[in-house]
TrEMBL record:
It comes from the Eukaryota. This is Caspase-1. SUPFAM superfamilies: DEATH domain. The lineage of its organism: Eukaryota, Metazoa, Chordata, Craniata, Vertebrata. Residues 262-286 are annotated as: Disordered. Its main location: cytoplasm. One of its GO terms (cellular component) is cytosol.
Length: 382
């Protein structure tokens, strides 16, 4: 499960027992000693902490929490190093950020894709470079991401972003607003602090800037490196990225027809997808019982029915959905999970009711969604 926490991503995963578990979105690998539930999200690096330690961010900074802290024994963090860089001892280490500041953990192992570190206790973890050694070996594995913006009159902008390979693609995409990510192979090699340019065929389109220096960055903002100003009649282009010596580091043939269709579908209002004769008048859309504040509807007999009738499996699904929608916190969820069944349901309802009508409405809607697939049966009053 993944969700947003402000502008930053949040993932949650339940590890069923001992073993290694890899997150498909972040590339993180957790080595577990026992069953536990993990919650992890990216947070911004503190530049002052890095500078005081003579380090530079080499990957996203992850805040890792667990329902059982002792369950996580190792963490594998994805890196973006080339084969030559991996031969350099001391280039990579892991920054461990706590309330006391930044400490540096030496790797147990550096593989072709990950840095392996022992977990002393859970907090914030992220890859860091030795600044001096990074200067000596500035080449890294990178990627080129393309985003097509919605058209404005006859013009449409194609954004080109040069990034390190271990930057999270979904975190970049969510910052591009209504622009659509164009699916294409993105891998390349880039040199930190070297300048790059973009060339486009057919020629004649404005590209700005003409040249830009590639810098290592891991949020919180991901702005376009280049903008290519196309016309809405352009069906496909050939793009290439060149280094400061004119060498080609990435080239792709890019079709714009699919992304344009996706943009146009996104811009169709939901009500326009339903024939006019099938639309329900606005005043008839709200059932009479929904005019009672949601937190009031969760009291009395409704609370009793939920305690007596909702199964453990459904309760766990409710907890998942309420955490995903930020109605409850991770500690509230883990506290409820360990309670006996009747206490779990009662505590969940009471916790949500205390948060007000909006939170209670989310619980009611979540229960209806789950009821549709699990046949909980109607709860009178909801």
């Amino acid at each position: 499960m993944k969700k947003r926490w402000g502008s930053l991503r949040v993932d949650r995963f339940r590890c069923p027992g001992p073993g290694e578990f890899q997150c498909a979105s972040t590339g993180l690998v957790f080595v577990m000693a026992q069953e536990a539930e993990l919650l992890y999200r990216t947070v911004p690096w503190g530049e002052s902490l890095l500078q005081s330690a003579g380090k530079q961010a080499a990957g996203p900074l992850f805040n890792v929490e667990s329902s059982d802290e002792a369950a996580v024994v190792q963490l594998h963090l994805p890196h973006s190093e080339t084969e030559d860089a991996l031969l350099q001892d001391g280039l990579l280490s892991v920054g461990h950020v706590t309330d006391e500041g930044l400490s540096v953990l030496e790797p147990l192992e550096v593989t072709a894709t990950h840095v392996v570190v022992k977990v002393p206790h859970l907090s914030l973890f992220g890859l860091v470079w030795d600044r001096i050694k990074r200067v000596l070996l500035p080449q890294i594995k990178g990627k080129v991401l393309l985003f097509l913006r919605p058209p404005v009159r006859e013009e449409q902008i194609l954004d080109v972003l040069l990034l390190q390979n271990n930057v999270l693609k979904e975190e970049v995409a969510v910052q591009q607003g209504s622009a659509v990510l164009i699916k294409t192979s993105s891998r390349c090699e880039l040199v930190i602090d070297h300048s790059y340019s973009v060339r486009c065929e057919p020629e004649g389109f404005l590209i700005q800037p003409e040249r830009e220096k590639f810098e290592s960055m891991f949020g919180p903002d991901y702005d376009p490196t280049f903008e290519v100003f196309l016309t809405t009649r352009t069906e496909r282009v050939d793009l290439k990225v060149q280094d400061q010596d004119g060498n080609e580091v990435w080239k792709r043939h890019v079709s714009l027809e699919g992304p344009r269709r996706e943009i146009s579908q996104r811009n169709v209002p939901a009500e326009d997808r339903v024939p006019a004769e099938d639309r329900v008048p606005a005043e008839s859309r709200v059932p009479a019982e929904d005019r009672v504040p949601a937190d009031q509807r969760l009291g009395g007999s409704v609370r009793t029915q939920l305690i007596n009738r909702v199964s453990p499996a459904v309760l766990n699904q409710l907890l998942d959905k309420l955490l995903e929608r930020e109605v409850i916190t991770f500690p509230e969820m883990t506290s409820a999970r360990v309670k006996p069944q009747f206490e779990k349901a009662g505590e969940l309802v009471d916790t949500v009711r205390r948060k007000g009508a909006a939170a209670s409405r989310v619980l009611i809607d979540a229960l209806r969604e789950i009821d549709h697939t699990n046949r909980v049966g109607p709860v009178q009053g909801l």
